[in-house]
Amino acid sequence: MVRNGTNCRLRAEAISVDYPGRPVLDSLSLDIPDGKVTAIVGPNACGKSTLLRALARLTPVAGGQVSLDGQPIEKQRSRTVARHLAILPQSPLAPEGLTVLDLVRRGRTPHQSALSQWSRTDAAAVDRALCLTGLKDMSFQLLATLSGGQRQRAWIAMALAQDTDLLLLDEPTTYLDLPHQIELLALIRKLNHDTGCTVAMVLHDINLAARFADHMVALREGRVRHQGTPSEVVTTEMMQDIFSLPCTVISDPVHGHPHVIPA
Amino acid sequence: MPADTACHLRAATDRRPFVLLASFAVLVVLALLALRLGYRPVTWADLGGALTAYDLADPEQIVIREIRLPRLVAALVAGAALGIAGTLIQGMTRNPLADPGLLGINAGAAVGVIGAAFLLGVTAPVQYVWMALGGGALGAAAVFALGGGAQASPARLLLAGAALTAFFLAMIRGLVLMSRQSLETYRFWVLGGFDDVTFETLATLWPFFFAGALAALAAAALIDALALGEDTARGLGVNVGGAKLLCGLAIVLLSSSTVALAGPIAFVGLIVPHMARAVMRQDMLWLAPCAGIFGAGLMVLADLVGRSALFGGTMQAGVMSALIGGLILIWLVRRTGGRRL
Questions:
Q1: Measured between CB atoms, does A80 come within 8 Å of chain B?
Q2: B106, B194, B243, B327: which sits with the fewest CB atoms below 10 Å from its CB?
């Protein structure tokens, strides 16, 4: 359980998800603490991406429910949900010939309808997203001409333009080299600090998760096995339990976060 | 970066309104030429008179009003509809080779027309407008159903279209072999052109074009979201199934009305979106109108060249548009190395 006094707008209540022939999530309950950065970790095929997708109503649940603000998420209009919750799927596709600005503007989709025109609020949100991600100077560049790190920042800018309090990211650091991973996670930390938004993301790298998250959730075989602060979660026992990896956990001499050293 | 610099950047790079205006101006010139040029010589004065103060006693003005004007309007409408439908389907399927014809619309319409000629002996163009419209819509509905309805993946949709088109073409060949009358009807109809267009046909079909254009307008922003992948679109609050159905409805309305109006005009729906994307970037609300203007222009030009003395005045617009459009496509591919296609 998340410690007392923290509200949780987004919760999974005993959700189950089955892919043909195998259960992926098994009656899993999880609260995403408001205003914090939560990292979901676990071995391949443990269901962490499926959990994130279910939280964002991209994958339907077979049992239980995901609730947003106390209401079942699938009972709410998708457009209404999209004004509160943004999700960046893993390795999203962009059509050729799209500029950064074109992409970021599409984040305003849930705020528009066939009848309403592009408003000053829309322009301000796009501008803010470009500034926060440091992409303002590159607004008119084609996505295809950007580096992997810049491109990922552009996608995050699109999610930011959606102007939501909740931001879900599915492996945002995939395909990035270490400096770009650090840069991106530092950006997410800064966004959380500056705007107070709630972030939940799936991450592969335990050490990076321990450094950049407030709250960690460790999954194995579709169940939450450990959760809490990084120092509560990242332990030798957890690494053995979740990854079956013998290791030593030390305190990172620079930042003081737990750091895994595989045996 | 200060805001005024950003505005300056935007002003410097956003040439889209200018492109739209310029191509619209070219379209107007082409339209006037289409009314002015033809087998029977008319003067600019006749043209002015026919458009502003129609004189029923003047044979030149009658030619303009009764023959060239409906032909021009049909070419404009058909070209615009194909351009818009092609842009929608390429955006929706994220496939630069998609063409409204791939959804079984043209083949379905052909079955409708040949079937009517074979079974009912219908041969007058005005009569088989409904057959083409119904056949096209049914063909597309069958493709959407086979492709998996609202859950259809782009690849499945196109495969279902290819399979159904092959099936329809086999049926047509069978019918054409069995009956000489069907062959005559088919031979004439399949080329695609505006020889028999009257205001009556246009009056029958305009509500369908209009409804298709409205559906396209409503679908435009949804397609922009869909182009980012279905998961991203869902995350943006788009009802993906509904968006695809709306987009499909727009494509079917626009292209089956076109095939009813002018026969199966190949290639325009494939090429025009590439021409539009070369100048417009990816934004459906700009791209679709641009493709509409380009398509209309290509069609009017094709009809104009096709009935000029160069080809003995008999080349069908459907043949000519593929010829001109094909050259433009080759030029685009060579210029960009195919990267942007």
A1: yes
A2: B327
